[in-house]
Write a structure and sequence with these properties.
- The structure is a homodimer.
- Chain A is mainly α.
- Chain A has two domains: 13-59, Homeodomain-like (Arc Repressor Mutant, subunit A), CATH 1.10.10; 69-205, Orthogonal Bundle (Tetracycline Repressor, domain 2), CATH 1.10.357.10.
- Chain A has ten helices and no strands.
- Chain A has helices spanning 13-37, 40-46, 51-57, 61-81, 89-106, 108-119, 126-149, 158-174, 176-183, 190-205.
- In chain A, helix 1 packs across helix 2 (40-46), helix 1 crosses helix 6 and helix 5 packs across helix 6 (108-119).
- The interface between A and B is large, with 65 and 65 residues.
- The structure holds a DNA duplex.
DNA sequence: CGTTAATTTGACCAAATGGTCAGGAATTAG
DNA sequence: CTAATTCCTGACCATTTGGTCAAATTAACG
């Protein structure tokens, strides 16, 4: 029986294996070439199977793309979840920023996949952005505002602060090619991201105006 | 004679007009759909001419794309050029940041065009990134380092500072759809970018740690 | 082992798309 | 006004690509 039909039947061993292979391959290709820039053949080749066989597991190209997006989204939202209202503001924001930067270092494809999707108008995940993402951000914005009201943080707009954290950290995944063009192979050294983290946190916490 | 041939002949009136129409239309389409996601038909339709006629002015799709990129690049590099070594550091960086943010507001397509190109590996403009962009950034990094050595700025890595300015400001063009999903139509109000600018400059200059 | 269900594939199709071309229409130069 | 040149178009082509299908192969199960 065709695995795409009713999901009442349990997944077989081969099915689980091949679906995993496909999604892994697809993440890489989609992140590099975008949805339209990716061909099913490319994914099939990278997943080491024939195109018809791949289409046996995912009936349409779009199905693969959506699966990859959904799978990655979860990982993507987790760090913000962990922003702890009870913790020390500076420490919490520091942890969050550093976690996001780590993700740009270790899993840049995920970041690029989203950047692509959003640049193209987020046709597939608009509902997620307006749903779980919005809820989560709204919730954390309240937390940050409370910290500000308590005088523990400089007065800034919580939403724009979150955007700025995303921007600064994801930039290291999405625009790495530009950075490499400017700085050369240094960007591939292990201490590059360390330096990035230091700069980002210094600016976020201390600011550019020298403190007395 | 075909306008694509030797450029010795001067451009005719119609030629100039139609080339402009094509490039304007192409910027929009390329910025939204990327190179591979864009079809010649789309551009032709937006430019209000037939596909063969469009191809009369630009022999290949790639030619249009490169023209659009080159044309936009110039505008793109200008603001950094104006960072004045003699000026006050805080003021200069403030002006630069605010200029970049304004560009994200008034001409988001340009930003998205580059984001797309870089995300996809910058196949067409790698030489520019490694050439004029790198030179310019190297030059300005020296200026910033001098300011730091003079004790006029907190000690941060100049390159990463520049990256962070790019990230924070361009984010408002490239990820506007995400922002709209979270904040709603507010992002299209005139005071939205004002608030963004305020947040960005507060963080850059003051930092999140409250000053005594 | 034998039967049933799951998996894989080569061959194939239709639509989309980048690009060509011969010739007709409009414009410009003299 | 006329000839040369530029501009424009419909028809067309080759390739790419998403997707189908019948049939062969392999794995699972009793």
């Amino acid at each position: 029986m065709n695995p795409r039909a009713g999901q009442t039947k349990k997944r077989t061993r081969i099915q689980a294996l091949n679906e995993a292979k496909i999604l892994e391959a697809a993440l890489d290709i989609f992140a590099t070439f975008g949805f339209r820039g990716t061909t099913i053949d490319q994914i099939a080749q990278k997943a080491e199977m024939s195109k018809p066989n791949l289409l046996y597991y995912f009936r349409r190209k779009e199905d693969i793309y959506i699966s990859v997006l959904e799978r990655t989204l979860e990982t993507w939202l987790t760090p913000l979840t962990e922003l702890n209202p009870e913790g020390d503001p500076i420490e919490e924001i520091g942890k969050y920023t550093s976690l996001k930067l780590q993700m740009s270092e270790n899993d840049p494809t995920a970041s690029r996949l989203f950047a692509n999707e959003i640049l193209h108008g987020a046709p597939m995940i608009e509902h997620v952005l307006k749903g779980s993402l919005k809820s989560l951000v709204d919730e954390k914005a309240v937390v940050i505002q409370k910290w500000i009201d308590d005088g523990k943080l400089t007065d800034v707009d919580p939403y724009h602060l979150i955007f700025m954290i995303w921007a600064s950290t994801q930039h290291y995944a999405d625009f790495k090619i530009q950075m490499r063009a400017i700085l050369g192979e240094e960007v591939d050294q292990p201490d590059y991201f360390e330096k990035a983290g230091k700069t980002i946190s210094t600016i976020f916490f201390e600011g550019l105006k020298p403190r007395a």
